[in-house]
Design goal:
31% helix; Rossmann fold; alpha/beta
């Protein structure tokens, strides 16, 4: 199984660059490992499209609460429709899609079963909004190979009142394995499936 994690604040107009880069790296993989994606807008859709373009099967992980499918945040609902139509499987996983820690826990459970992780990541540390560095460190700590993917021209959105973000100038030769050093994981204070 292969999966991807990402900065959730990638600029929407640059997702085509991300999708093209993912198609390239997925095309280099040997074997027929299935792609897994947690249902959400943005990079998950680009990853799902790239997985299918590479001739691989796609499993879409969607949240459940109380044994029934959970309502996703409004920004993700249209994307789930496309992902489900691309996928061969829908996997239900108990987590709260509106809770950051719940989403991080769901990503950790996917990563724990992966044989390869693609990280759309500029190398920045995790913060209260973004857990990509934590997820990269989590995968590496479990021996899951991580390839950092950041296409030339990709950029992150500015967050009003937030710190200045990388403008997307970093580029890495995607034919080489990742050499990025990941920061220490951000501690998770409760299990994703525990009630709040």
């Amino acid at each position: 199984m292969i999966a991807a994690v990402e900065h959730a604040d990638l600029t929407p107009e640059r997702l085509n660059l991300v999708e093209a880069e993912l198609r390239t790296v997925l095309g280099r993989l040997t074997g027929r490992a299935q792609g897994w994606v947690r249902a959400a807008a943005g990079v998950p859709v680009a990853f799902g499209r790239a997985v299918r373009a590479a001739g691989r099967e796609l499993a879409v992980v969607t949240p459940t609460q109380g044994m029934v499918p959970a309502l996703l945040p409004e920004r993700d609902r249209a994307a789930v429709g496309e992902l489900v139509s691309l996928g061969q499987q829908v996997r239900l996983l108990a987590y709260d899609p509106a809770d950051r820690e719940g989403c991080v826990g769901a990503d950790e459970r996917m990563i724990a079963e992966c044989r390869q992780l693609f990280a759309l990541w500029v190398g920045s540390p995790s913060n209260g909004r973004d857990a990509t560095a934590h997820l990269v460190a989590y995968a590496r700590a479990r021996g899951v190979p991580v390839e950092v993917v950041w296409p030339e021209g990709a950029a992150r959105e500015a967050i009003p009142g937030g710190p200045v973000r990388d403008a997307g100038r970093r580029h890495r030769d995607s034919s080489r394995p990742s050499t990025t050093v990941a920061p220490q994981p951000t501690p998770i204070t409760r299990e994703a499936n525990q009630p709040r």
